[in-house]
Design brief:
There is one protein chain. By secondary structure, this protein is an alpha/beta fold. It has two domains: 145 residues, Rossmann fold, CATH 3.40.50.12370; 161 residues, Rossmann fold (3-Layer(aba) Sandwich), CATH 3.40.50. It contains twelve helices and ten strands. The protein has a ten-stranded mixed beta sheet, sandwiched between helices. Helix 1 links the parallel strand 1 and strand 2.
Amino acid sequence: MATYQDVLVVLDPSQTTQKALDRAFELAEHTACKLTAFLSIYDFSYEMTTMLSGEERESMRQAVITDREIWINELVTPARNKGLNVNIKVVWHNRPFEAVVNAVTEDGYDLVIKGTHDHDVLKSIIFTPTDWHILRKCPCQVLLVKEHAWPQKGNILAAVNAGSSQPHHGALNNRIIRQAKALAEMLQANVHLVNAYPGTPIHVAIEIPEFNPAAYNDSMKIHHENAADDLAREYGIADEFVHVLEGMPEDVIPRVAKEIDAEMVLIGTIGRTGLSAAIIGNTAEHVIDRLDCDVLALKPDSTIAVP
């Protein structure tokens, strides 16, 4: 997808500055996309008002929704005055991430934009916040916005797994790079590739005396460098914009993003469920809190099986 047509912007009533909305306005100025300013609200006290009839409780909920719609209208009026196409949608739902996923499923948005919060490291791993749920379950691309500006002639970093032979990784690499190039053209930015590769497995080096860690590292480095170079040539990316480093992706990607002062990092995310998701998380999730720029998360093509 070269550009976005229909964008859902998740608002946060607890924040004074709506950075997701500001970023969406900036995106809409470059494209002809339609924006929907979205808010999910819920107040349990309205459900517990047993002295009121169902109609009266519904009337109270609608009054709260109307109040929020007035607030959002004030936020989007300046953008509308500039000619941007901005709609408003407020829903009553007790699980914000489900409200977002439902809206995408029902109305076919092709991008969700949401502002991020700083999370305590322990909580971000064990108690998954709304951001993580949306990353795992939202069927479209998700742009998580931080504070970094989008300057012209800036840098966009595409995180790839070039050394993998699995079809879903190859397809996701291509999707990530194509989207990065489309955004770079729109924002007049440069595209960089980053590829992390693992170092010598310590347990193997200990258990197998004849194992040669140096030869293994050299072989792994050459394999990933060649694969990343092939991707770069295929998409016309200059050699100096290809970064292949040893280490975990959650260490390498933020390091490179900081070195090149990236305005955005594109990364693939494969959703997990159950206990493994709550404890282990996902590479994209480990990366996000360590970046000072926007993160665009893309999923593999649904037609390609993910093991």
